[in-house]
Design brief:
The protein has 49 residues and is an all-alpha fold. Helix content is 71%, strand content 0%. The longest helix is centred in the middle third of the chain and has 31 residues, at 14-44.
Length: 49
């Protein structure tokens, strides 16, 4: 390695990974609620209101 690459600050590679996981969790929560809601209505006799 030459001196130019040794002195550079490394990019935080964990940040995009954590952001992607957080986005997927948010989107997955909206998706799974439709499935979970059906089970709650059937089991406890609740309404959608």
């Amino acid at each position: 390695m030459d001196q130019a690459t040794i002195g550079e600050k490394s990019v935080n590679r964990l940040l995009p990974v954590l952001a992607g996981v957080a986005i997927q969790l948010c989107l997955g929560t909206a998706y799974i609620w439709g499935i979970f809601q059906v089970e709650l209505i059937a089991r406890f006799g609740w309404s959608q209101a």
